[in-house]
Amino acid sequence: MSTKNPSSRFFTVGLVIAWYASNIGVLLLNKYLLSNYGFKYPIFLTMCHMMACSLLSYIAIAWMKMVPMQTIRSRVQFFKITALSAIFCASVVSGNISLRYLPVSFNQAIGATTPFFTAVFAYVMTFKREAWLTYFTLVPVVTGVVIASGGEPSFHLFGFIMCVGATAARALKSVVQGILLSSEGEKLNSMNLLLYMAPIAVVLLLPATLYMEENVVGITLALARDDFGIIWLLLFNSALAYFVNLTNFLVTKHTSALTLQVTSISC
């Protein structure tokens, strides 16, 4: 039985709704840019998201003083934040790549298996065991996705592999960020965690962008000369991605990694 007071429950529900809505917005914008618009640079797009998260996190903490600035206390903590950044990059890049080959509906159907991976990773990493009923309810979800994959007319093997990889990485990220948000001695609030994680993600994504998406900046500027709307789309998409990540951390902090992924089944 929950011990939360009504105002706390309403706050948590509001966070979930905000995360849910912004997540859908980013997903649809990513699909539009990567598939409909023809902007085939998922790694660069992810790097834009992380640059926006770095800048907006710094503004919110250092300038607007929304929360106190926290420092990284140890090398172990820094390693965990770096690992979280790498996992996050893998999940978003793989997810964005999959959107080039799979429709949004099928992409989200595969994403419904995220709670299964989350439960497995939570048990392996933290020995946290959920009720047997929780595990039992995940079985039909995974079974349904397997059946749907076999009958999907738009099935693409590479896109499917990327989407499953993104799903597993998303689950692992939720567990790791839950540890960083709640562990005594390593606890960071949501905004500070994003402040430190995002620049590391940019550093990790930059060489991949330069190697795999050569001259993407020049191509983007050339597109902007013909249609400046691409710049506004990238800016809005990146700002929305910051809101997704912030609400993602907040929902994890106020609920749990598994709860977060269960709420994400439909988004």
From TrEMBL:
It is a multi-pass membrane protein. Its main location: membrane. It comes from the Eukaryota. Pfam families: TPT. The chain crosses the membrane at residues 12-29, 41-64, 76-99, 105-125, 132-149, 155-172, 193-210, 230-251. InterPro entries: Sugar_P_trans_dom, TPT_transporter. GO terms for cellular component: membrane. Keywords: Membrane, Transmembrane, Transmembrane helix. The keyword ATP-binding does not apply. It is found in: Membrane. Residues 15-264 form the Sugar phosphate transporter domain. This is Secondary carrier transporter. It comes from Lithospermum erythrorhizon (Purple gromwell). The lineage of its organism: Eukaryota, Viridiplantae, Streptophyta, Embryophyta, Tracheophyta.
